[in-house]
Amino acid sequence: MTRKLLGIDLGGTTVKFGVLTLDGEVQEKWAIETNVLDGGKHIVPDIIASLKHRLEMYGLTKDNFVGIGMGSPGAVDRDSNTVTGAFNLNWKGTQEVGSVIEKELGIPFAIDNDANVAALGERWVGAGENNPDVVFMTLGTGVGGGIIADGNLIHGVAGAGGEIGHIIVEPQNGFLCTCGSYGCLETVASATGVVKVARLLAESYEGDSPIKAAIDNGDTVTSKDIFMAAESGDAFADSVVEKVSYYLGLASANISNILNPDSVVIGGGVSAAGEFLRSRIEKYFMTFTFPQVKQSTKVKIAELGNDAGIIGAASLARQFIAE
Amino acid sequence: MTRKLLGIDLGGTTVKFGVLTLDGEVQEKWAIETNVLDGGKHIVPDIIASLKHRLEMYGLTKDNFVGIGMGSPGAVDRDSNTVTGAFNLNWKGTQEVGSVIEKELGIPFAIDNDANVAALGERWVGAGENNPDVVFMTLGTGVGGGIIADGNLIHGVAGAGGEIGHIIVEPQNGFLCTCGSYGCLETVASATGVVKVARLLAESYEGDSPIKAAIDNGDTVTSKDIFMAAESGDAFADSVVEKVSYYLGLASANISNILNPDSVVIGGGVSAAGEFLRSRIEKYFMTFTFPQVKQSTKVKIAELGNDAGIIGAASLARQFIAE
Asked: Do A149 and A91 share a structural domain?
């Protein structure tokens, strides 16, 4: 009997599930809504019910699975398989997750932080090409990330390893970040950060630009609007993308000057701009790296999209293969 | 019979040796001059002769040793135990090191880069307190370093991991670095970098200062002179130390925002300034880190001095304990 992996990507809006081969191929996937009502107390039971239902539907039992892996927002305790608080799930205190799922399903369980898990996915079967040294950066509502160095996910002493969004890229006149520092990457490269950069540059831009006009007008302008305008030749929008690319290139370079990974993989909504964004980040990356890093570390765009979470989550369960 | 470790710290001026317990206690240590003549061809034979002589003197045989570990300057190939070029040893092509020593001594051998090895030493029995996540930064003629993350030394894809001296701390108006980039930490925090910062600040400083006068006079001023003057109350020298501390604090913060180590340990000649320097670095570290890192990552001064090399080298040999 060929054994499989189960991956769960728990998010604030949906829970995604995947049944994967041991090589990381997604054989089945589905999703349910995340019910965050009543302090998030329905989430774990909903996951268990969905898993039981689907396994029965597919004619699979616990013996078909090596293990279950899960990515969760919030603060994850990997030793006890609990989540000790997750704002967007309404989980306030310590939430039993692994022990309950393991008991109900009878399959070994492992958990990690959602950004780390997405990094594992991109590293395993995505842009990272299964290299032992891969840095993943995700540009969305915030800027998150995960670092795999010498084959290990780097958690750090308090689990804050890989918090790439809080690298300082503007130490002197930066925007205030939600973390309390000024000049964090997140303040200039998240979806809202891109708009902040646009607002700042709009103050001194003197040419014609529909995007600048919209900003000055108080209209809602998104990072997507800005990237699309830049690609269509709006010079103001282009200057915004250039500045954001400078920050991303500087951050990617400093990470690489420290860790010399095989690649820095850029994912998340903002990365939908693809090669248009990547090539500009690379330009600044080349400005700020030293020769050995220039020659060996690559800047890439993520390949797995939304599947990175279930794939990376499933990869956590590979630790149970030998058992 | 209690078994021991042998550590060798190969440098451009001396080769240091140590016999250590498995717990990292130095029982014997000695040093020989490094003979770099004739393309450095005497170095390995000299090391072997010295080892044989001392082991006989101490009444020790190969059976007393678990293994030999060595730190070397230059580009180290850990798989083949060779050094593929080391400028300050006059080694140009690939130099057989491990195979020759292993054959002559009959003891298993391991090698790594000298800065990495010093990091291992400080992590093991120095300021790092054997924590699995320690970053070591050495401020000397250059700025080097080593990173231990989740218990592993980080080498990166081309062996350039831990090159902390090339983090960019002044992206806009930095000094040119030997690596070709502008604004690397090494250009402002190495022994010569501190003097460069002093020269720049001297241009606009208007008060009285013997150090500023010496710089304007074209006298030789060292980083040590500047730190001593600052500690004695020279306001100009103090402003130089403040600026250097800002750069070191920013670099330490960005490393920690990425890796969340237990500690950033600062060693090398410039770190002789001790708490005077550490407390100022910490001030800027606290400015540029996010709350979880502020609360969990510490800035420390190295404790082992010159012994970090032999101790870290010896720690490489601990991989042979199980054999």
From this structure: no
CB-based contact B296 A157, cutoff 8 Å: yes
Q: Are residues A72 and A140 in the same domain?
A: no
Own/partner contacts of A252-255, CB < 8 Å, gap of 24 or more, are A252/A135, A252/A137, A252/A281, A252/A284, A252/A285, A252/A299, A253/A284, A253/A285, A253/A287, A253/A288, A253/A289, A253/A293, A253/B168, A254/A167, A254/A288, A254/B167, A254/B168, A254/B254, A255/A135, A255/A147, A255/A164, A255/A167, A255/B258
The confidence band for A322, taking pLDDT boundaries of 50, 70 and 90, is confident
Q: How many CB atoms lie within 10 A of CB A218?
A: 7
- Look up the pTM and report it: 0.94
Q: How many domains does chain B have?
A: 2
Both A30 and A75 in a single domain? Answer: yes
Domain that holds residue B210: 130-303
Smallest Cβ distance to B258: which of A164, A287, A296? A164
**A323: pLDDT confidence band, cut at 50, 70 and 90?**
low
The whole-chain average pLDDT of chain A stands at 95
B291 lies in the same domain as B244? yes
Of A226, A220, A146, which Cα lies nearest the Cα of A188? A226
Contacts of B296 in chain A (CB under 8 A): 156-158, 160
- Quickly list DSSP for A226-260: HHHHHHTT-HHHHHHHHHHHHHHHHHHHHHHHHH-
Show the 3-state SS of A274-290: CHHHHHHHHHHHHHHCC
Q: Give yes or no for a contact between A224 and A174, defined as CB atoms under 8 angstroms apart.
A: no
Alpha-carbon gap, residue B271 to B198, rounded angstroms: 17
CB atoms near residue B318 (< 10 Å): 18
For the CA atoms of B246, B250, B255, B261, the dihedral, rounded to the nearest 10 degrees, stands at: 60
Mean pLDDT per 10-residue run, chain B (323 residues)?
Answer: 93 96 96 95 97 96 97 93 91 94 97 96 96 96 93 93 95 95 97 96 94 95 96 97 98 97 95 94 98 96 95 96 72
Answer yes or no: are the C-beta atoms of B70 and B89 closer than 8 Å.
no
Q: Which site among B136, B166, B169, B245 would you substitute to test the A interface, given the most A Cβ atoms closer than 10 Å to its Cβ?
A: B166
Cβ within 8 Å of B, A 136-175:
147, 149-164, 166-168, 171
pLDDT digits (tens, 9 = 90+) for A138-166: 999 899 999 999 999 999 999 999 999 99
